[in-house]
Structure formats: structure tokens, C-alpha cells
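JOB MANIFEST
job_type = single_chain_structure
chain_count = 1
residues = 221
[input]
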Amino acid sequence: MRQPTFHRVVGLGENCRAKHNIERKWTEYRRTSLRATTDCLTRTVFDWQATPYPALLEYLRRDFRGMFELEDLGMLDGRVVNKRYGTLHRHDFPDSPDLAVHYAAARSRHDHLCNKTRSAVTDRLPTLFIRYGALAPGEERVLHDAIAALRHGRPFALALIDDDGHPPSDPAEPWQGNHDYWHAALSRYSMRSDASLGTLLPKIAREQARRIAGHIRHLRF
């Protein structure tokens, strides 16, 4: 059965493994396709934190509001955690931070990413949502319905990708997961930018110029 074509891909966590493999897949693809560029990719709040399944549902149900309040934050092994929702914020704070000092900047960034994520979730374009990890059928149904409630009939699909049990491609970076497994799973879906060629060509030219400049700096072609 032929898969539909999507114009947006949105990562839903559980952690940065999903973001890494989404970018790895479609960054490679955009080099060979005039219709696939970074326009299809969206940075989300879930890219930068560990978000358990119940917390993901709360983000969606609360319209991304009230999920990062100072009184809910605490410390666990030198990392900031949300004691109420269970999210872990490795990238929002330095190790063992003074929350009173660093919270305002972290909150501003979190709110910015929440706004971007809300816009992506409600985008009118056909959108592929991807979450790392397995869910029970009932949990997957609840997550699907929570997304559908925000999309108001706009087309979307939800993909759960679980490569646990497969060896990491880079043993030094096990958080990245198994690249081959993710590539095969993501290859089931077709991604295509909705931008016109007149808009895409200058962007592609700039991306290729940056890539060539990087190769020249490192003397590799």
C-alpha cells in the first residue's frame, strides 16, 4: 500500500534519539531532492528534554502551557527534573545549576520551543509525528486521539519507532540508537516540501555552498 506524502515531520521525544535520527535521515535526503529541504523539519520542545509518555499527553492536553513552572523543578544527580511531570532537562541548564539564576533564560527558551511545537502540531499541512519507544495499543490510541484533537481533521500519521534491543551504531554514543533501524523505519514515509521551486532553489544553493565550504576547510570532497 502506497504511503501518503507528508510536508512536515515533528518529533515527540521520548528523548533526543528521535531528533537525531529524523535530522540524519532527511538531512541526507535533501541533498538529492529538489523537493526535500529542512523546511520539512521542525524543532520541538521534545527534542531537547526527556519526556515520559504521561508528560507528553499533558503537553498536548494543556496546549503546552504550565509545563515548566519554577516550583515544579528540582534536582536529581545534578540534573534538573520536573518533579510534577517527570521531564528531564539535560540541555536547558548547566550541571548542578542554581535554578534562581538560570531559570529565566531556560523558561524563555522553553516557551519559544513550546510555541514552535504548538504551531507544528496544528499546522494545516499533512504532518508525520514520530516518537521513539514502544507504547501499548491503548496508549498509542490515546496519543493519536490527543494529537487529532488539536489538528481538527487535518491529515497526519503517528509513527512509533523502537530500536531497543538493537546495538547502537556508535558504541561511544549509544543515545543515538541504531542508525540502520531508524533509516529503514523512516524510509517507509515520503517527505516533500510544499514550498515552490522558486523559494527552494536559493535555499538549496545556500545549503550546498555551506557544505562545499565545509569540505574545503577540511580538505575533503
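[summary]
Residues 51 and 87 are 5 Å apart (CA to CA).
Confidence is low (pLDDT under 50) at residues 29-37.
exit_status = 0
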